[in-house]
Specification:
Blueprint (H helix, E strand, L loop, with lengths): L1 H14 L7 H6 L9 E4 L11 E5 L2 E5 L5 E12 L17 H25 L17 H11 L8 E10 L8 E6 L24 E2 L10 E19 L9 E9 L6 E6 L10 E21 L9 E2 L1 E4 L10 E8 L4 E8 L2 E10 L4 E8 L5 E8 L5 E6 L4 E6 L11 E10 L2 E5 L2 E7 L1 E10 L18 H12 L1
Helix pairs in contact: 1-5, 3-4
Length: 482
């Protein structure tokens, strides 16, 4: 406990500007400071892989996008995986045989490789007697069989999963936020997958692709939900980065307020795409909706039945006005492991700093402004995992999210995360599953997450503690915020 608390206090002090590095050394010597190791940008990130700023320590990872009126921090937790025994109760770690058989295969493979190494100096020399490495023979069929035996069966292994997102938005002007997305052709369990959630991550470099689906029955549908209903009269689709045959050519778009009764908004037939990552915009009669469904009935190849793909879906927001700002700077200090974002709006300079603590196992974000009472933001947690619950508690200043990966039952993996919102002056109130802070001088956010994963080292293959991970997370968050 003491170690966690110390890490939290130091982290918050750094973000609040209470710890400096200029001190005594600067007064006693004029030696040059170390060369800065910094990346910086003059605009918010739009691409997860190429532009978002990575942070990570302990079990927590984060990618900072640095938006002005809507900032997204994508979150990871080290032990959050799909597949395994949580999805298949008979999962045995992927072993193809008994331990005795694996030991025998390993012994034989070692002997074959050792014989190959012993033969190598005599068999592979040039005319001058020098040992050469080219033309080294490939593995024999027997070697390949033994290697495959030791590799095991990876079909049920699963894949690493994103935890979700920390969203920091301006309630007055932020664009609508997608809180849930799925399709009837999601990748089968155990594959890395290109899920429907990729359609709303703001990046043309990712995509939704249905080629790894368990089954593919047209029409292929994508369903998504926004945090709140909004008025719209148009949408944009972005084609994938490869394989034109996968482009949708015929589809229908539906909208709904309650997720039950849907209205046909737009229908397209025989659409052609002339390039990769091409954007096409379509309009319909303006209306207010919270849920949407895209139903694709034909694609460009194989008689209209090639598995479809798309890079992005974006709905127009009739009430959205882009923020006006200048002096924008987004940077990552590689020596200090601190990311920062700053800009000026309406004469006020706003700054956000982000840091992940290893001993404390939490993410800290500090929001400040050079004019008192200027910070008004909405803070929320979202996740792409369908089986989840989110709640906000204004009295405690927390947003809590719990859930399970897709395909996991009651005895499978459970994950949890909590966001603590500490505001200096101003007010705080719950807004559905989010917290609104109004008129604050500064705000500190503390986020931590965890699962009930247990690193099993025996043949029971019981990888879960079966204990609720939330209490320990709450303890970490409270210690960091103290």
């Amino acid at each position: 406990m003491k170690r966690r608390l110390t890490g939290g206090i130091v982290t918050m002090a750094v973000l609040a500007g209470m710890v400096t590095t200029g001190g005594t050394a600067a007064q006693t010597t004029e030696a040059a400071a170390p060369t800065p190791l910094q990346t910086y940008y003059t605009a918010p990130a739009t691409n997860w892989e190429k532009e978002a700023m990575p942070l990570g320590n302990g079990f927590i990872g984060a990618m900072v996008f640095g938006g002005v009126d809507s900032d997204r921090v994508q979150l990871n937790e080290h032990t959050l995986w799909s597949g395994g025994p949580g999805a298949n109760a008979s999962y045995n770690g992927g072993h193809k045989g008994t331990p005795a058989q694996a030991k025998a295969a390993l012994r034989e493979l070692r002997e074959l490789l050792q014989q190959r190494a012993n033969d190598f100096p005599q068999a592979y020399k040039n005319e001058n007697g020098q040992i050469i490495s080219q033309n080294y023979p490939p593995e024999t069929d027997r070697m390949k069989t033994l290697i495959n035996t030791l590799m095991g069966d990876k079909s049920g292994f699963g894949s690493y999963q994103t935890f979700g997102n920390l969203l920091i938005v301006d309630p007055a002007s932020a664009p609508p936020v997608v809180v849930y997305a799925t399709s009837n052709a999601e990748p089968r369990p155990g594959t890395t997958g290109q899920f429907a959630s990729n359609l709303f991550d703001g990046s043309n470099g990712t995509k939704w692709y249905t080629g790894d689906a368990v089954s593919l029955n047209f029409p292929i549908t994508v369903d998504w939900e926004y945090e709140a209903a909004f008025t719209t009269g148009g949408y944009t689709l972005v084609s994938g980065e490869d394989v034109p045959d996968r482009d949708p050519v015929t589809w229908k778009l539906y909208g709904s307020l309650d997720g039950t009764d849907y209205t046909l908004l737009n229908e397209q037939t025989g659409v052609t795409w002339s390039g990769r990552n091409q954007e096409k915009h379509f309009t319909f009669t303006q209306g207010t909706y919270k849920h949407f469904r895209l139903a694709i009935s034909a694609t460009a190849g194989s008689g209209g039945r090639t598995p479809p793909q798309l890079a992005q879906i974006r709905m127009d927001d009739a009430g959205y006005a882009p923020p006006v700002y200048d002096n924008y700077r987004r940077g990552l200090d590689l020596r200090e492991a601190v990311a920062s974002v700053s800009c000026r709006q309406d004469g006020v300079t706003y700054t956000r700093e982000y840091f992940v603590s290893n001993p404390g196992n939490f993410l800290a974000v500090r929001l400040t402004a050079d004019k008192p009472g200027s910070i008004t933001k909405r803070f929320s947690l979202t996740t792409e995992h369908k089986n989840h619950v989110v709640s906000a508690d204004a009295d405690a200043g927390t947003v809590t999210l719990t859930g399970q990966p897709s395909g996991h039952g009651a005895n499978g993996l459970h994950f949890a995360g909590q966001l603590k919102v500490v505001h200096e002056k101003g007010t705080i109130a719950a807004h559905g599953e989010a917290l609104d802070v109004t008129g604050a001088d500064a705000v500190t956010l503390i986020f931590s997450a965890g699962t009930d994963y247990f690193q099993c080292m025996d043949d029971t293959f019981d990888f879960f503690t079966h204990e609720d991970p939330l209490p320990e997370i709450v303890e970490r968050v409270n210690a960091a915020a103290a």
